[in-house]
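Hey, I'm writing a tutorial for new members on how sequence and structure tokens pair up, and I'd like a real worked example in the thread rather than a made-up one. If someone can provide the structure for the chain below, I'll link this post from the tutorial.
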Amino acid sequence: MSDETPAPQDGADPTTPDLQAEVDKWKSLARKHEARAKESFAELEVLKPEFDALKQASLSDQELAVETARQEGRRSAAAEFGTRVATAELKAAAAAAGARLPDADFLNLSRFVGEDGTPNSEAISSFVDGLPKARKKPEYRQDLGLGPQGGGAGVGQVTRDQLKRMTRQEISKARSEGRLDAIMRGQL
């Protein structure tokens, strides 16, 4: 006999590793590395304030002045545009709630803006909730079947004497214009 290993009887190649075992191995390695990355990220978040403080301490006077000016510029821009954004959010929230917003000249818009310049959604929603709701228009006309409305029932209407002297074409035109309504209702 030779030194060769006998061929498996089911037709599988003996050099091919077990596929499921390989998949499980790589999954466990991926989970292990994912857990390590999450731990590293958490450590980084803890150390970030300390790093920022050290960075600030190591700046020269000129760099510190530049950084202070940048931060002040960001704050002023956020405050300026924060009121505009807050106004837009107020209008949107009032429209969604069906409420009527008072004129912006009468509102203190700075109370709807946070310290960082972003709109304060809690203050906006509580303000809009306190606004009176706009009255809904009736779904159907409300003057149906009430009879003649308003004064001057005979104004612009043709009298019986005028009707006697009119031609058929004039009568037809007056009727289409509604000037014979009072005669047809028996008011004149």
